[in-house]
Predict the structure.
Amino acid sequence: MTDLRVRFAPSPTGYLHVGGARTAIFNWLYARACGGTFVVRIEDTDPQRSRGELAQVILDGLKWLGLESDEEIVYQSDHKERFVEVAHELVRRGFAYHDFTTVEELEQMRKDSQARGEASFRFKADLATVREDADLRLKNGDPCAIRFSAPPDGIAWNDLVHGPVEYKGDELEDFVLLRSDGSPTYHLSVVCDDHDMRISHILRGDDHISNTPKQIALYRAMEWEVPQFGHVPLILGPDRKRLSKRTGAASVGEFQQKGFLPQALFNFLTLLGWSPGKGDRELFSREELIEVFTLDGIQTKSAVFDEAKLEWMNGEHIRMLSDDDAVSYLREHSGPLSVSDSTLRSAWPLVKPRIRLPKDLFEDQNYVFTDPLDYDPKGVEKHLATPEILKHLSSFAADLETVTFSPESLEEKLRARCDEWEIKAGQLIHPIRLALTGKTVSPGLFEMMELLGRETVLRRINRLLKVHLAS
Ligand code: GLU
């Protein structure tokens, strides 16, 4: 164990977004790679937006991904008194002040700033002036917030991802620590908790980069050791905007529901904005990622979420499972179909090379379990065009009554018949595939026939003949 301590600090105001999960993964991997500690803290200080059930959904998502907290989960709302204390301490230390500006006044200040053509409004007060009548107004019980006075010289830090970052004095504003209703703000709570939890490294999304100078200023004002900060690039959707529900699945729960393996999503998210450096290797287990993970590999550019690639990666991770694990994974995602282990076990070698998600077996390839009701119209047009082929299919069905149902004997019989009828093997293979699956592509036909068994194969071929001889 080292003193390295990292945290993942989600606000329970929404589901576990894949961007958040990726931040959690980077923190977790960094802790594991350095023998440090990973802690989860639920930032539930905003009573209007925080919801208890969402905290649970987030924790469940983290658990599913194997990102459990090494220590008891921290709930930020338990520390409210401490935050209030620190806000007052900052006033005592001369870094913060009571601010009696009303909502209306603030609005007017914003408008004035706009009228002056300023790009954005920044609240700044002269510390000496604001203190003048503060005592009197406090005694009067006038409502007030506590604001931190932005350091005039600005703030710079060496970001673990971006390198040197600087905010000049005029880019900073006086920000609220305690609202007029006495509730602590995010900046105050996050700094107090990170300090009290002895967090040494803060890895979080790029969207927090402009918060960092404010937070560093708070550490300095309290004379607390400043942790190291690293800001990881955002995840973009296919439209190159921040990934959101609008452009597809964005929450971990949705991927879990679609039947993705947690280790595949873990692998995929790690490679969004991080690269192992050498080579183009993309498939890693969690243990392998711990071995190779370094902060140097975190990119500064945003990464685009490509669900098709995640599906591919899921297929690769499925193929890494043992047969037993694959069967129980498939069973778990078989939905309303009641499929026996033995059927799954015999289907597994056939679907293994092509599966990406359980739905490939239970939806796209559900012919393994149920008779097809429709036949691909293009396949029908192409492969059932002549009456001869239906005649041959019918004769071959008669052969199937007696032939041994092994891939070798089935193939031997089919080829012998095709030679005899002077047709190509494909001319019979394609119609049989259509009859058995309704589709034009499937796993190896003879293996599939063996899997389905004589009775099913004959039933399906006879149904196709019935449908097409009648039409
Ligand atoms: N609770 C903040 C969020 O969910 C994270 C704060 C932080 O990482 O500093 O965005």
The radius of gyration is 32 Å. The CA atoms of residues 275 and 281 lie 9 Å apart. Residues 18-34 form the longest helix (17 residues). The longest strand covers residues 37-42.
